[in-house]
Amino acid sequence: MILFLVDDMGLMDTSVSFVTDAEETPVRHPLNDFYRTPNMEKLAAAGTRFTSFYAHSVCSPARASIMTGQNSARHRTTTWIRPQGNNSGAFGPTDWCWTGLNKDSVTLPRLLKNAGYRTIHVGKAHFGPNEHEGADPLNLGFDVNVGGFSAGQPGSYYAEKNYAREGTTGQVPHLEKYHGSDVFLTEALTLEANRHIEESVQERKPFFLHMSHYAVHAPFESDPRFAENYAQSGEKKHAAAYATLIEGMDKSLGDLVEKLNALGVADNTLIMFLGDNGSDAPLGPVHGYASSAPFRGKKGTHFEGGMRVPFIAAWAKVNKTNAWQDKLSIPAGTIQPQIGTILDILPTLCNLAGVTVPDEMPIDGYDLTQQLAGKRHETRREDFLNHFPHEHRSSYYTSYVNAGWKLIYHYPVPDKGRRRQNPLPKTYELFNLKDDPFEKNDLADSHPEKVQTMLTALRKDLAAKNALYPAMGTQELLPGEAPEPPAAQAPAASSATLPPFVKAVRASSHELGNLPVYAVDADKTSRWAARDGSFPQFLEIELQAAQQAKGVTVSFRNKTMIRYTIDGFGPDGTWITLVDQSENKEKVQTVTHSFDAELTKLKVTVLEAQTGWATITDLQIGK
Questions:
Q1: Which of 392-406, 525-539, 563-577 has the lowest average pLDDT?
Q2: Contact assessment for residue 371 and residue 340, using Cβ atoms and an 8 Å cutoff
Q3: Alpha carbons 46 and 41: distance in angstroms, whole number
Q4: pLDDT at position 531, please?
Q5: Which helix (H) or strand (E) holds 431?
């Protein structure tokens, strides 16, 4: 068995079309013609592809769900795991499972290992933080680990950099023999996977390979083997590099199939191909129609582009007389329109291997055997719960898909308008995905009865999974319930230290206690500080009234590589991006940005920095 998992690969990051018309005929879109994935095309032609396959919107929850067959609301790893520690967010549940999986977790590799399979992990793990058991896949039931550790991305894809960012920072482990060579990370992992497949065959042991590529996660470094294919594409540097990562991943798939055929085990080997969350292609607005077009949104958002992923299942070589293929029939070229989810992987593979899941372990997924055969699973629930009580591109929300309808509930936490959240200040969004799969028409206001029906089902499902919720202080926020009015609190900064035009200053809440200064003082200076790695962080100035802002000067502690954005909140109640340095690769210390906008708030959001604090040294008002 091979589970071929691609990091941050969305539904549209391929030349294979997963979008169909009313007759279930594939429909191509521009992104299908931009990307080159011939080996995915071969796999889809040999097996079954799903048009509605769901994953959680960020990686660690999805990966834990694949390993356990449980929804993230149940296993409680509900956001990405930061290697350095807990990143719950300002209003996230304090007891979420930020330590990830452990030696006692009942996992897919552990179940297969106990049944006699050699279990091999190659590539990204991201199952637990530093100094915890989940950081090492060997603690989770794998016999072999190549490349897996606590980090969610590689320091670099280049062997010339030893697969590290600076020194050994973010270095992918176990690949020392490639250091200093020209072997791209995707290729190195493929070579290692093929080596372990061959060893398993020589030992005459069935194997389970978790081929978990770091591609196509950032950093968007171009794979030189394919760069020429996109040199004249017209796309920006990072978008072209992303496409090379896609093509390199696809070559890896083809190389694995070639190895299986050479070893004579292709007709005994099932391949499941999927992404772990929606696309992160650097192609446009986070919540718009760009990276996942025609779907809306991307990784980390509550829209379909954040949760719909490619899924293909096929035997590496079709052989109708093979006993395994008789047990799990997968007709060539089948398109399956019925919903599937990452929760279905464990029960499907366990059934194929004849493995019994312990009775005391609740499973939220379904066996896909009937659906892989091109049939409907008549008894499965056609729903998917994506519970995200944390901060990210979309923050503090629960989305629920049920029988073609989708409800998104946004929890009423403060400061809900920041840049990477849903730009619509609404509590509910409702979409009829059967008629409107691309989420263009919000029906919440015109269908209040459907909102209530879906909300009741959403709440019931959360309760059944014993979910944790966002909280304001000691008050847990439940869907559909208004929070109690907060008790009077001291202002964020003493008014004595603020210039007349400033009402308040806020910084990332879990850092406030460590800040030497967090108010705008007499020289209009405010300061923000962050522990290394605890990003994103923000510094926000709220004005007494709407003012015409002409520019801002921002200083950082040292001249350092830093990625940041500057956003303004207008009197019309919406955030606008004034400065976007989210893909900045230059070292800066002090920088001035000019603009002309009427604002009531200004926010600097640091997405990544090497260390330290940020200071707004001059906010130019009315100049």
A1: 525-539
A2: yes
A3: 9
A4: 41
A5: strand 428-432
Say whether pLDDT at 418 is over 70.
no
Could you give the C-alpha distances from 153 to 36, 102, 124, 149, 603, in angstroms and in order? 23, 21, 7, 10, 27
Give the architecture-level CATH label for domain 395-476: 2-Layer Sandwich (3.30)
Identity of the residue numbered 618: D
In the chain, where the domains are located: 2-89+97-376, 395-476, 495-621
The count of other CB atoms within 10 Å of the CB of residue 586 is: 9
Residues in the chain: 623
What is the tens place of the pLDDT at every residue in 560-586?
677 778 888 888 777 788 888 877 767
Q: What's the rounded Cα separation, in Å, for the pair 535 and 608?
A: 6
Residue 155, token pair as written in the block: 């320091």
Q: At what angle do helices 38-46 and 237-263 cross, to 10 degrees?
A: 50
Structure tokens at 487: 């008790």
| Superfamily (CATH H level) for 495-621 | Galactose-binding domain-like (2.60.120.260)
Whether 10 contacts 217, CB under 8 Å = no
Instruction: Name the CA radius of gyration of the chain, rounded.
Output: 24
**Closest by alpha carbon to 60, among 23, 7, 104?**
7
- pTM metric for this prediction: 0.79
3-state DSSP call for residue 424? Answer: coil
> Does residue 317 surpass a pLDDT of 60?
yes
What's the confidence (pLDDT) of residue 518? 32
Both structure tokens of 122:
């190659």
For residue 153, the model assigns a pLDDT of: 97
Q: What is the pLDDT of residues 187-231, one digit of tens each?
A: 999 999 999 999 999 999 999 999 999 999 999 999 999 999 999
Instruction: Give the residue among 616, 510, 611 at the shortest CA–CA distance from 566.
Output: 616
Whole-angstrom distance, CA of residue 384 vs CA of residue 399: 8
- 2-89+97-376 folds as Alkaline Phosphatase, subunit A (3.40.720)
